[in-house]
Amino acid sequence: MVGFKATDVPPTATVKFLGAGTAACIADLITFPLDTAKVRLQIQGEKQGAVRAAASVQYRGVLGTILTMARTEGPRSLYNGLVAGLQRQMSFASVRIGLYDSVKQFYTKGSEHAGIGSRLLAGSTTGALAVAVAQPTDVVKVRFQAQARAGGGQRYQSTVDAYKTIAREEGFRGLWKGTSPNIARNAIVNCAELVTYDLIKDALLKANLMTDDLPCHFTSAFGAGFCTTIIASPVDVVKTRYMNSALGQYSSAGQCALTMLQKEGPRAFYKGFMPSFLRLGSWNVVMFVTYEQLKRALMAACTSREAPF
């Protein structure tokens, strides 16, 4: 057995809720530069946005984007929006991942055998609920990641300033911009991510190919990341473009998608695919491995505290 040993008592909903948020924050800290590179590549090609990237800068590939940003804007630019990103994960991942098992049990009425339909319903539900809770943090994160520091034209000076500026200039609705595509994206991402992880892990355990420890969690998480990237990339690109757009640039997320298709072609929907995969793959591995270990560590701590002798 690699890592913490599984406890006899299953993790409580509170342990899952706290563990998911903490694990997601750790994963974000490690993979955030890849997410920033993904956002820059996704918005490249737009004529304007609420936050403009430097017009003269062209990004090529994941490594090229990271190196260009570090050279022209400084290494700290790779962590633009980190505070909002961590705020997002604590509120977002806690709901969509931490409540997944509880919602799945609700749909199966307590049965231990959950079918694919129940898993998909649970993933869609917690994904949509998470967006309803954390959308403003996602808007601020994307805006920060999209703005270029080169030339000193920063629009937002801090996370709090970003919330205030968006609310003042675009109204309360500005903080909830892109909610529809984000709900669609996260319902898809949650289903692909959590359900795929669930299914791969169950298959590996039932076939006795692996035991319920780190290698199994790593393999399941990597497979979930790859499947999620393929399925969710088009919606993710539209979400990023729409959330970063200037007021009135697009009338809706659908119009944003149609404009992309007309002006840039179908390939535009897979812009930033490699950083998306690198980010989602690595994020899934770090998050799920950490999450599984945190659940066991927290339950072991609770058990030992209740029975000290």
From TrEMBL:
InterPro entries to which the protein is assigned, alphabetical: MCP, MCP_dom_sf, MCP_transmembrane, Mito_Metabolite_Transporter
Question: What is the annotated localization of this protein?
Answer: Mitochondrion inner membrane
Give the GO biological process terms. Answer: transmembrane transport
Keyword terms of this UniProt record: Membrane, Mitochondrion, Mitochondrion inner membrane, Repeat, Transmembrane, Transmembrane helix, Transport
Q: Which Gene3D superfamilies match?
A: Mitochondrial carrier domain
Q: Does the keyword Repeat apply?
A: yes
Q: How does it sit in the membrane?
A: Multi-pass membrane protein
The Gene Ontology CC terms held by the record are:
mitochondrial inner membrane
Q: At the top level of its lineage, which domain of life is listed? A: Eukaryota
The cross-references to PROSITE patterns, in alphabetical order and at most eight, read: SOLCAR
Keyword Transcription regulation part of the UniProt annotation: no
The ranges of the Solcar repeats are 11-106, 114-203, 212-297
* UniProt record similarity statement: Belongs to the mitochondrial carrier (TC 2.A.29) family.
Q: What is the designated name of this protein?
A: Uncoupling protein 2
